[in-house]
């Protein structure tokens, strides 16, 4: 670990180096493994910035490192350092070269132009000391961000990379890569060691189902045997497609289902279920033609074996239902969180020369925030998986039934970690629910866009959206807290619970959507009475009706909570909490 800087009165240059475009780079992902690799790559590059700073010169962050293969820890993409008087620009250039050197490990032939993009500023000492340097550096960095460097590909572009949407791509061969044209960055992402261990969308969506089976099987021999039958069918399929010809590699993949919060068991079949890719628990996965296409097989696998697999998956579903294990959902959620006005929070110019020392404490608190958030999302009660957690921002995936609780727990973890150094710090949140077959890239981009909209209306803000396979069905933007100090997501969960299992409650949401314009003409008092009347009429409990009113008060402009009702109706129909 690098030491904190020794503070003294010797004039020093202040250097800030950033890696812009991290969120965009991470969003260029078509698979969950792409998300993981994108985060890891950016953490590697950011860590190169940190390690390039001479001992004693690092200001922010004071701790760093990309973590282990199974720990996609986020490293801040902004590094602050001090250098001897007149040597700031040289240090910045050395840090930039360290980043490019780290990337050359993956791109030794320099096939990629314009990446990585590194921006820096260096500010000499002057009147006002470190605090004045910091303020000036923030101004210059904002100006630098408005300047763009354009690097053009040195070869004719016939195809654009299907993963990144930029850079020239070449056609890829192999399982699951039909019609893909990948750039060098795309090939790096797909070939990164350890990427296959990051859970798929199906694995995350099915996690509560598989976890429930593992726990319930301790008291149900039928359920344990059903899991064993599915494992045997999977092993038979693997034997069927195995080839001794090295020119015909077979890639029916079973891995990618393990999550940090999944329960463990001693039974081999249950251990297999814990780690198996979640889609194998779905009968439709065993369709022979789909298997051939999805796994790049030269021919369809044996139809009898596929039939056995589909039957075993169906039997497992029935046995789980008898053991009162909730059926799997085909939906999951992207959770995005971002600290509000963190740049302003770090600009405590009132501290004067003490600002530099305080920055060290703030850095450690932000690092702790990232660790606490990861723990909060990945616990057994939430079964989520963090893509990155840098302290001031987070991206994670969670099962549909646990996503809102995971978002609340992550927010609480952020506040707890910063209570000492930044007691007023808040974070805005976006939760986007999407189907496992929906484009992951679209879901992540939607979460990032919704987060920006939520922050534009309120800080801390909240955005919740539903993306069905045909596109977005509903979205809701509100404050994080209600006027009474409660958490909006708790009221949304109450509304979901009160709407569950009733066709009438579904008609409440549809009626609010149909009459949106007319309801908008009512004043607040009449709107309250009308919402209460409709809620009671459609079978929503008193608690649900009150939750609907709280959502109206917390929403943007006090408008009818149509989006909240539509989101709640979707969750009540899809989830088995």
TrEMBL record:
Reply yes or no: does the keyword Iron-sulfur apply: no
User: A GO molecular-function term, please?
Assistant: nucleotide binding
What does the record list as GO biological process?
defense response to virus
Bias type Basic and acidic residues, positions: 239-248
Q: Where is the GGDEF domain?
A: 330-469
Which InterPro entries does the protein's record reference?
Cas10-Cmr2_palm2, Cmr2_N, CRISPR-assoc_Cmr2_N, CRISPR-assoc_prot_Cmr2, GGDEF_dom, Rev_trsase/Diguanyl_cyclase
Gene3D superfamilies named in the record: 3.30.70.270, CRISPR-Cas system, Cmr2 subunit, D1 domain, cysteine cluster
Instruction: State the NCBIfam families in the record.
Output: cas_TM1794_Cmr2 (TIGR02577)
What protein name applies here?
Type III-B CRISPR-associated protein Cas10/Cmr2
* Name of the encoding gene: cas10
């Amino acid at each position: 670990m690098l030491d904190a800087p020794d503070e003294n009165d010797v004039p020093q240059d202040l250097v800030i180096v950033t890696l812009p475009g991290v969120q965009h780079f991470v969003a260029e992902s078509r698979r969950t493994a792409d998300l993981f690799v994108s985060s890891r790559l950016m953490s590697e590059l950011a860590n190169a910035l940190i390690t390039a700073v001479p001992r004693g010169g690092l200001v922010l962050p004071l701790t760093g490192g990309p973590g282990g293969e199974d720990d996609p820890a986020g490293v801040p993409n902004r590094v602050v350092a001090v250098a001897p008087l007149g040597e700031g620009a040289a240090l910045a250039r050395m840090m930039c070269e360290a980043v490019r050197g780290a990337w050359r490990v993956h791109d030794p032939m320099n096939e990629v132009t314009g990446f990585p993009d590194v921006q820096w500023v260096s500010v000499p000492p002057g009147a006002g000391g470190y605090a004045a340097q910091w303020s000036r550096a923030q101004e210059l960095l904002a100006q630098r961000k408005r300047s763009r460097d354009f690097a053009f590909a040195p070869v004719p572009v016939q195809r654009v990379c299907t993963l990144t949407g930029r850079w020239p791509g070449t056609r890829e061969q192999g399982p699951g890569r039909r019609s893909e044209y990948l750039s060098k960055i795309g090939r790096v992402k797909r070939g990164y060691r350890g990427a296959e261990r990051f859970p798929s969308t199906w694995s995350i969506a099915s996690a509560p189902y598989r976890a429930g089976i593992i726990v319930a099987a301790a008291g149900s021999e039928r359920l344990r045997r059903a899991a064993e039958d599915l494992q045997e069918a999977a092993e038979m399929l693997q034997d069927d497609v195995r080839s001794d010809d090295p020119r015909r590699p077979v890639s029916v993949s079973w891995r990618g289902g393990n999550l940090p919060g999944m329960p463990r068991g001693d039974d081999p079949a249950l251990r297999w279920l814990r780690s198996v890719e979640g889609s194998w628990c779905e009968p439709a996965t065993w369709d022979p033609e789909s298997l051939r296409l999805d796994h790049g097989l030269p021919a369809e696998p044996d139809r009898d074996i596929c039939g056995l697999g589909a039957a075993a998956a169906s039997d497992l579903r029935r046995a789980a239902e008898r053991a009162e294990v909730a059926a799997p959902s085909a939906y999951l959620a992207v959770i995005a969180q971002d600290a509000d006005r963190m740049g302003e929070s770090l600009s405590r110019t009132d501290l004067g020369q003490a600002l530099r020392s305080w920055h060290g404490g703030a850095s450690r608190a932000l690092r702790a925030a990232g660790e606490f958030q990861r723990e909060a999302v990945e616990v057994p009660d939430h079964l989520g998986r963090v893509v990155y957690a840098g302290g001031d921002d987070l991206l994670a995936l969670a099962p549909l039934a646990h996503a809102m609780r995971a978002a609340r727990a992550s927010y609480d973890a952020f506040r707890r970690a910063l209570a000492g150094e930044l007691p007023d710090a808040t974070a805005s949140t976006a939760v986007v629910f999407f189907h496992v077959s929906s484009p992951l890239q679209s879901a992540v981009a939607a979460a990032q866009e919704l987060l920006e909209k939520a922050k534009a209306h309120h800080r801390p803000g909240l955005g919740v959206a539903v993306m069905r396979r045909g596109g977005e069905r509903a979205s809701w933007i509100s404050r994080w807290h209600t006027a009474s100090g409660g958490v909006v997501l708790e009221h949304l969960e109450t509304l979901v619970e009160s709407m569950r299992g009733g066709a009438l409650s579904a008609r409440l949401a549809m009626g609010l959507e149909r009459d949106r314009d007319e309801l908008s003409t009512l004043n607040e008092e009449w709107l309250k009475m009308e919402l209460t009347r409709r809620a009671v009429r459609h079978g929503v409990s008193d608690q649900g009706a009150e939750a609907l009113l709280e959502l109206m008060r917390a929403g943007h402009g006090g408008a009818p909570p149509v989006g909240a009702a539509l989101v709640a109706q979707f969750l009540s129909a899809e989830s088995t909490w």
